[in-house]
Specification:
The chain has three domains: 151 residues, ATPase, nucleotide binding domain (Nucleotidyltransferase, domain 5, 2-Layer Sandwich); 92 residues, 2-Layer Sandwich (Nucleotidyltransferase, domain 5); 74 residues, no CATH class. The protein is 46% helix and 19% strand. The chain is an alpha/beta fold and 339 residues long. A hairpin with a 3-residue loop joins β1 and β2.
Amino acid sequence: MTDRVLAIDGGNSKTAVLLVDADGKVLAQVRGPGAPPQTVGMKRGLDVFEALAREAAAQAGLSPDEPIASHTAAYLAGADLPREEEDLTREITKRGWSTTTFVGNDTFALLRAGTASGVGVAVVCGAGINAVGVAHDGRTHRFPALGAISGDWGGGGQIGNDALWHAVRAEDGRGQPTELLPALLAHYNESSILKVVEKIHFEEIELDPHALCPLVFEVAANGDAVALAQIERLVEEIVLLSTVSLRKLDLMNEPVDIVLGGGVITNTGDTVVGPVRQRVTEMAPLAQVRVVDVPPVVGAALLGLDTIGAKPSAELRLRSAYDDHLPAATTTVGAAASG
């Protein structure tokens, strides 16, 4: 079998699967819904991944009875603790997609996507927030990233929930006046935020905090103090994640990359990145803060290519496929989550 890498970037809101050969050539890419096994259940989550992996194999012209790849590199949101990585590795190995399998947290894929060596710090802020660091000698630093119980704050869900919290308190008098209130009323097409709360309570409407997150940035752009305070807290949290990781790995005075990714960061221009860059470089002057410029699934594929001992030219070839746009082989599988 020709060496191939099956790369999986499993996020909370979407899953990306990339199949590449040992030379870095993109054979297929498929995208589908998010299905973190810790959230949707192990079987259902892996069924989603398998549907996407099989679609990628078919797209690449592989026979249904041959292994999809020699190595599977799966970097998944929710794989936050070693026990979870071990469980996922065992269950994915049973699926028989490849000869060898490695499962890690998706922030490692983000770091590899944004660096040539995989050394530095990556901070992802999408549905949630997390960070990892890797030193030159291979030492790693990471956070449990289990939410409030492990000291976390941030991510689209947190920001959206806080927006509703501030709007309720603005309406009933416990909090400061804020333009978040009329913004959320318009979003829900209601005249009172307490009516919104009541409907959420009785499950007549769904609370989707991720949909509220962009409203915070829109309101902040108009100078609203409450919304600006939320963004300021997010900036501070990203700076903390970055600099704590640098400090733990003795990288504060090293010329390393800090790679930022996730929808909350990449979809808000310089609103977050600019202040983060300024504050981080004040403390770690040699660090380079950058936003990832290729999809994190490319980082998963690169880690897989590292594992099989691919030549440096494979990385160049893979990255070149993303210079202007996604490879033409990309398709979207939207029904996988219903399996």
